[in-house]
């Protein structure tokens, strides 16, 4: 998460002074934490929640919050956020090489995240509320969506955007370089903010969402390691979000099946158009994914074609955001640098003439 550009690699293991860190160890630890969460349940059996007020209302919050419910959530979040930002900054200053093992600062990041995960579980058990009562519901969802958009820009040079082909935007490569260097700070915010936004709960949607965030925290702690660059692992992290979206739709929407299908086919379309081209799927496998998607759409929407258009909403939004964010980053960060370099060049030329 601190930096995804593998400028220099070393093997780790024998002769490097570092033991190899198998990725499955981290995944197993995340699953173990989920087991602890289940063992400590229930978290809200004593709470009489306010009646659901619609799509913009977050149901899982106390009807009568207190100073301490607000304070403990915000204090825990703030300390977690600032600490991880500090760790990312320290890692970037160390000029680390990519390795199969863990750098000391990776162990610090893992330990820090583990501590704050435990703290949030305890905070939920005692005070319950997360950040949700004080901020819009859309802020949590939007932070993750924007993170996925940034990943598409960062990966554009390697896997393209449309069926493995790059889009003809002359400055998208430079924007991707900027994001690869600094994305860790935004990703850390999106993940930690989302983690503290929700209380710890044991509904299926909450459990999958919490597991997803734990896996993202794991990935964010493995900066400057080979695991951080594992393409199958990063693809899994991109696509697990569809499982969460489908489950939440099934649980919360009045038309749960239709909402779940919309999310499933929409995110599957993004996978087929862009994401699957970043790993070594064979051509027949890619065609199989496409045919399964077409067959699924035909089967589900054969008697309700007017609803099929909804599938396009999420992909169109995400690809539009890719273009808009690329343009915004170039305009705010890269264009002024270009103007400054141009001004300095003109100044130097004038001085030489003088």
From TrEMBL:
Report the source organism.
Leptothoe spongobia TAU-MAC 1115
This chain belongs to which protein, by name? Serine active site containing 1-like protein
Q: Organism classification, top ranks? A: Bacteria, Bacillati, Cyanobacteriota, Cyanophyceae, Nodosilineales
In the UniProt record, does the keyword Membrane occur? yes
Keyword annotations of the record: Membrane, Transmembrane, Transmembrane helix
Q: Transmembrane segments in this chain: where?
A: 21-47, 67-91, 103-123, 135-154, 182-198, 204-225, 232-253, 259-276, 283-301, 316-335
- Keyword Transmembrane included in the entry's annotation: yes
According to the lineage, what is the superkingdom? Bacteria
